[in-house]
């Protein structure tokens, strides 16, 4: 082999060594043949034939030697033949010169400069072959081998050699390398280095941040990505658009409109949009980004270029990055859509980042700021005064013209006030976003502010502690601070208005609602100390009363138990009594509420279900259209509850006093506490409603009693409580007249009631009642119908009269049936006596006297009774005179025997005929209408005849009380009837005469006969009720009275 190959062969040998990646041999060859293998030729051979997979550390030293043009002494020592002969020249040794030249000409060495393949080479001068080689080699290694990780080792030694190499490594290779190989190797960007550089800056920004914050476990690495990817990428001056001029200071740039195409740094603008977009979608990403990244000045170059962070950007560019980053922070706070305490704490941290970047005073921690509630009204006056600024809450958030997001002291103070306000609302249980409170403060809509204030106070009432007064004092201060953001009413001009989120609400309204919250949570002592005992009372007396009454009624409506000693009703009572100096017991509204509580408590004593499956609640009573109808449901669901008439009447009275029966109130208006507590009734109206309720409840109880077949109770209620029209009721006002449409119907229904086997039996019959239950029941029905006739309106009388007539007919039939039964019984007794039988304990049969008629009476019942008495007396067996020993006798039998004995003795007197007229006149006025004793003394035949025509008269029902057997009015009449019957001249009785005829037939009666007759008359009248003597008609209806009067006159003569 020749010691020195020809130049073509040297070139071919260098190519061969490059292909084989024999760097040492190639370096030795270049060191010994530098005249042939010049710098550019050698770099092009390396660029074209050196394998891309070769590690950069293996040949970077060779590049450094080539750049400097000197090699090590060992490579240049000619005596070191071992090194020289170590180069294997066999690949080119067999080639002729011509073949070598041809092969050299066929070599296609790549040019060092190629803007199409390597965009960065366009920035390097053509004579800077080393820089061109390094740039082209970097693109080729990435494109052919994808070994992006080898490029830092290749380019780092040459950072100071050329700015193009430096910015390619720092602003492109390093961000892309970290994004694809270090941070997210599983989700690489599918672009080569050259293709990546050709993408628009906005697209590059999106690609670099595509995996940042995508997973929750990576939230702690968001700042790392911004520092290590975005910040280095932003250092390249190519990111800045020369068309966008940054003029003046940051404050002066507020008048400049940054269009999308004219943005001074489109890539940075896209990063800001990424931050704000994540704030609206996932606030945690934005919060971690601003918290972990101090700003564009915080760059992580990984030690590749110490001190190179600020070497590329000028002061204006850095200021622009800082202020726009702070603006993005403010914009992100408004875009957080989650209303939670944690989200608001994140927004406050973002705001604090903006304050720090713009060199403002740092903010205190959020908890401290809420505790201090520092005045912020003056600082935000420039923004909060104009409602037009509300448009900036949603539009142009990243524009420098936005007064809410451009970082000034006013905008940061306004944002701080909003965050504190939203934090107070959200912490209290009324979640609210920053944008929402911003609209409340800027739009100043009173309706919206009122709704949010009520929502806040109701949340405090529902979730606040029951025993912590400090909490409620702090809550009151916070509510008042939200109204004016710490500004007192006296501050500023007289026409200035508060600037808070409740600026349109009056302070009195907030105090009233807070008072209601205190009372709802049973903080009575604290409420009394603030609103009643304090020297400067926040509320006047009227407002305080209205608030207390409204809260009490709310507690009542929310109650589920009608017992006033528990639950909501107890709270209602306690609220009324919590302010004794303001609300006295004589207050009309307090009295109404007390009556309402009493009425509701009364309902707790009964079982009551108004709707199937739903228990009764107190609010149903207050809003019920017809509360008296609830008593009807009580009577239906509680057996025998009609017997508690007194309690039910008290319940109705309390309903009236509580205003529940006011006819002017509808169900809708009754649901409002103010209308309920304000409605009052005049004394006349209250009296009318009370009387109407009393009559209606009584009628309901009568109907319930009839439904449960308790006719006796219904009959008692009718006689005792419905016997007079409502206008003459003793309990009502004499000047009050009502239209009672309930009482007469109840009386009519009782009059129509028919006795059945289920009918409750009476516990006692009374002294005036018939022993026959059917007859007694018919008489009671007639009395009920008589009551209905007295109290019913005129158009309804016909119906009642029809029922009355049917009842009279039934009574007549019953009396006849009873009489027939008695006749059959007497006949059976006579049959036994006639055949020698003897009834045990019977008296001797008196002489038979067949009366011509029954005793005088006004109704069929009197006639029947007279007939019964006559037959009974005539059928009695006469006691034997020789009987020496009698069985034990009752008082009734003893009295009957006495009367019969006296009758026998009187009939034996010879002077009876002479004094018949005188004695009849003497006793006729006392017992002239007794029909039953007519069989014993002769009867008043003509009196019976005349009285039978009066049976169908309407006055029978009202006069029946006077005709009852054994009544006081009939006792003396019985004696008179007996006497006049006894002393009739023909044995048939002349009771219907006037007494003058008897006096003419007989002479003057002896004194002893008169005394004896008077004594016997007194005895007969005293014990007549024992022998079944019926009542006689009144003196005006019977004729015995006339005879009596005549006899007396003649006796006197």
Describe it for me?
57% of the residues lie in helices and 0% in strands. By secondary structure, it is an all-alpha fold. α39 runs parallel beside α40 (860-875) and α41 (891-908) runs antiparallel to α48 (1007-1023). The termini are far apart. The model is unreliable at 76-85, 243-261, 489-495, 728-732, 847-887, 906-1003 and 1029-1053 (pLDDT under 50).
Key traits:
mainly alpha; 0% strand; disordered C terminus; 1053 residues; 49 helices
Helix content: 55-70%
Please tally the helical runs, counting DSSP H or I stretches of 4 or more residues: 49
Rounded mean pLDDT score:
77
Shape: elongated
Question: Rg from C-alpha positions?
Answer: 61 Å
Main beta sheet: strand number and arrangement? none
Low-pLDDT parts are: 76-85, 243-261, 489-495, 728-732, 847-887, 906-1003, 1029-1053
Strand content: under 5%
Structural class estimated from helices and strands = mainly alpha
List how many beta strands DSSP finds: 0
Distance between the termini: 203 Å
